[in-house]
Amino acid sequence: MLQTTDTAPAKHGLAAGTDHAPARPDWTIDQDWGRYSAEEHGVWRTLFERQSRLLPGRACDEFIRGMQDLPIGPEQIPDFEQMSKVLRARTGWEVVAVPGLVPDDVFFEHLANRRFPAGQFIRKPHELDYLEEPDVFHDVFGHVPMLMNPVIADYIQAYGEGGLKANRLGMLEKLARVYWYTVEFGLVQQRDGLRIYGAGIASSFSETRFAVEDDSPNRVRFELARVTQTHYRIDDFQETYFVLGHLDELLELARIDFAPLYQRLAGAPEHEPGDLLATDTVLTRGTGRYHTARRAA
Ligand code: HBI
Ligand code: FE
How many other C-beta atoms are found inside a 10 Å radius of the C-beta of residue 131? Predict the structure, then answer.
């Protein structure tokens, strides 16, 4: 995988797992907090500090507030049980430890029950910006603050339920794109400008600035049917970001019955990550400079 991206959950292989306790049938493991080494806490601190400097003015209000209200700080990798106490009281969610990527149906089953599976391990010091599976920094720093928000809390649960259904209908690919372009790489329009709410951006040092400030990517008004038809990049920065007018739009999304939509979209054309369509509301037409240079290299 290329260097810049933060995490790439998709269709590929499952968790390599390492040397911790065997997973239970639901793939959860003990976090075993006491076993993190000083070096591992140090990696967390490095990632936490540089990302915390970057996010004010770039992450959305809800993210910043969620972070403030959680027992998450630079000193050490957070304890999932302590975090879950706060999270449960706020939105009914909890965080459970998994070895890495888990099978789709297992992932959805957890989300549908308001359990967020978080990678137990942390990336190595030499791979701060290079990661194939979601680790504790991506999952906890990137996702958990947004789970403190009631709209996101309901939306991600609905995604779990929708995922179980889409899986049965053979439509998972389309639903996964919605997750990708919202929960992982979503932007939202706020009072003072574009802000990040997607965990894949919020947990990535290099993509944080790229997504909000660079003139290379397209930024397009979010539209559900458009997004279900759009391929995404798992190995590099996105070529296009989709922008909500308000996070509340996710509430409507959570209520949608996808079955008729899947039917309507059955033979519809699909789009490449960098495509702009005549029907798009384009907020920023990207120069494409970054990806053009990558392809030439
Ligand atoms: N497992 N731990 C983990 N985290 C994910 O984000 C994840 C996963 N398994 C499957 C998956 N994501 C995606 O392929 C689905 O959202 C489609
Ligand atoms: Fe993620």
Answer: 22
Residues with CB under 5 A from ligand 2 (ion): 199
Domain boundaries, the chain: 33-296
Residue 199 Cα to ligand 2 middle (Å): 6
What's the gap between Cα 214 and its chain centre?
20
* CA 198–ligand 1 middle distance (angstroms): 15
Instruction: Give CA–CA dist 131/5, Å, rounded.
Output: 7
The structure tokens listed for 129 are 């910006």
Query: pLDDT by residue (tens digit) across 134-146?
Result: 999 999 999 999 9
Query: By alpha-carbon position, which residue is closest to atom 14 of ligand 1?
Result: 10
C-alpha distances (whole Å) from 201 to each of 16, 32, 154, 186, 204 are: 24, 28, 21, 8, 5
Residue of minimum CA distance from atom 2 in ligand 1: 101
* Calpha distance 27→14 (Å, rounded): 11
Give the span between the Cα atoms of 227 and 225, in whole angstroms.
Answer: 5
Looking at the structure, give the CATH architecture of the domain made up of residues 33-296: Orthogonal Bundle (1.10)
Does ipTM top 0.90?
A: yes
Cα–Cα distances (Å) from 91 to 6, 44, 74, 88, 124, in that order, read: 26, 25, 24, 6, 32
> Tens of pLDDT along 106-133?
999 999 999 999 999 999 999 998 788 9
> What is the C-alpha separation between 212 and 196, in angstroms, rounded?
7
Of ligand 1's atoms, which has the minimum distance to the CA of residue 104? Answer: 10
